[in-house]
Specification:
Blueprint (H helix, E strand, L loop, with lengths): L3 H9 L5 E8 L5 H8 L10 E7 L3 E9 L4 E6 L6 E6 L2 E7 L2 H9 L16 E6 L25 E6 L1 E6 L4 E8 L6 H15 L6
Length: 208
């Protein structure tokens, strides 16, 4: 884990998301048991995920990724003049944008300068979610006015802003717990360290 001095140095360089990471052994756990311990216990795991890396669609890959419940998400729906993207934090819409959601998502990502550190897994946070089938209409303009009625009231795009996650290395049996800190927030470093301790404590829980 980086020291507080290193954290302050990265903040001074303009990074507004700095990852803190601890390693543990997970050779006696499965990805599902870790998901239940770390992500599912809070609100039934709402806005969390378990992703497996797969090789060739047939063999399990090296890593399993557990996204802990996200506080912030992006959701987009509607096409043409009705296209709309919302940023939702803790269940409250904090920002709304009209126009093509793909343009907004690209601009949103540029708000963050992330201090990627040596030793971090290949996927270690960011936006994770889905682009629905009809999202092709954001690219193919000739299709944007041909969309059937939305009877499910389901976003065409939903992306979770993943700032707390666990990555399992299925080869080495190691578990990486990662928490991103925003240095502009008070006590960001100590709060991130405390959150990592909480997650390590949760590993001791048994899964009924």
């Amino acid at each position: 884990m980086i020291t507080e001095l290193e954290f302050k140095s990265l903040s001074a360089q303009g990074y507004n998301r700095i990852p803190l990471m601890v390693e543990a052994f997970a050779d006696l756990e499965t990805p599902l048991s870790l998901y239940l311990k770390l992500a599912h216990s809070k609100d039934g795991g709402k806005y969390s995920f378990l992703l497996e890396s797969v090789v060739g669609g047939e063999r399990f890959g090296r890593y399993s990724f557990i996204g802990l419940p996200a506080r912030t998400l992006l959701r987009a729906s509607g096409f043409g003049a009705a296209a709309r993207t919302e940023v939702v934090t803790d269940g409250v819409v904090v920002e709304t944008a009209e126009g093509n959601p793909l343009d907004f998502i690209e601009a949103y990502q540029k708000r963050f300068k992330v201090a990627l550190r040596p030793g971090l897994p290949r996927f270690c946070g960011g936006l994770a979610g889905y682009f629905g089938y009809d999202a092709v209409r954001y690219i193919e303009k000739k299709l944007e006015n041909t969309c059937p009625p939305d009877t499910l009231d389901c976003p065409d795009i939903m992306l979770l802003q993943c700032e707390e996650l666990a990555v399992i290395d299925n080869l080495s049996g190691k578990l990486y717990l990662i928490v991103y800190a925003d240095p502009d927030r008070p006590e960001a470093y100590s709060n991130a360290k405390r959150r990592l301790r909480e997650l390590r404590d949760q590993l001791r829980y048994s899964v009924a």
